[in-house]
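Changelog-adjacent note: as of this version, every example in the card shows the full chain rather than a window. The one below runs 181 residues end to end.
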Amino acid sequence: MQAAPKRNPSKLRFDWNKTKRWFKYKYLLLLRAKGGPSMVARGFSIGLAVEMFTLPTGGLAFLLIFPLIYLFRANLAGALIGFVFGKVIYIPFAFLNKSVGAFLIPKGTKRYLIHHLPHLLSNIIRGSLDLIVGGMVVGVVLGLIMYFPIMFLLRYHADRRKEKRKIRKAQLVSNDTTESN
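Full-length structure tokens:
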């Protein structure tokens, strides 16, 4: 019988440098995405808007991201980032979603729907109709508001990178001309 090979303990540790490089690489892929910053910002806005009403629907609203991305020609990675960002800010916005939904839904609607829908759907509506409706409204407004700062930020960063490349290229050209003389 052979003994199992010993593992190198240094290989078992988490390598933060590789993780940092991987995130930087993915970020650069987002900046270089086809369609540019507006496509990524559209994806972010879609992901954020959908997240605002995903929790009360039991996660089924997540499936809405894919047709919306196709319809608006947005970026999937940007949408997933917006979706995760929405999870981070959801708790404070849940109170706003509930109050907006309660304001928008007419008074007798819940009672009417509870009596005319199957038992499973009536339980969902009883507890979260306000959150769903309010989340849709707040999500769309929040998505529209966040589109512009995200697009301008990505555009600013891309322009800065282009300027740095121009400067670096000019320095290389000037170094080549001074060396050849």
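Structural remarks: The CA atoms of residues 95 and 131 lie 9 Å apart.
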